């Protein structure tokens, strides 16, 4: 039998079909009350919180990443160490080469100086006979060292004319003797000339035969070019 409902003062008779629809609407309304508002994301939530899900964490990937970074750093360190070692080896090689070159140059200089000293010692130690021939030869060796010209023949010739080979000869009658500065020695040199043309390395003694020859030849080279050009008193 149909029921009556009122709508704005009017009664409406509901048949069986209408009652089923109304019941469905009521059920939906009740269900709607139990639901919360739908959020903007479109997901629905209920008034009762959902249980918290358990999340499983793993450190394997982190460990792998850490190991990878450590390996890269170790590789980079090895490369840097290799480069530094190579540079250090090159620097040591260059230093060793420079040291060897310096030592070789020093040894060469020392050998040259040693040879020079040996030659000088040989020259100094070289013995000349204590006679006219020995005096002339020793004088010429000293003259050669100092760049003073004069042949054996030219020196011998002038000695024989001036003193006849007597190292103690003295002129006591010419103008020099009159002036108080007589000529002395093998090549009859006056004291002022001997002092002015004395050559270092020989005795400062006008009577010394070698010193007398060298000083006289030094004077002749200055005034005449060489003792070889002197053919008379000079």
Automatic annotation (TrEMBL):
Residue ranges constituting the Transglycosylase SLT domain according to the UniProt record: 155-229
InterPro entries reported in the protein's UniProt record: Lysozyme-like_dom_sf, Transglycosylase_SLT_dom_1
SUPFAM superfamilies in UniProt: Lysozyme-like (SSF53955)
Region (Disordered): 101-125
Protein's recorded name: Lytic transglycosylase
The species this protein was found in: Streptomyces mutabilis
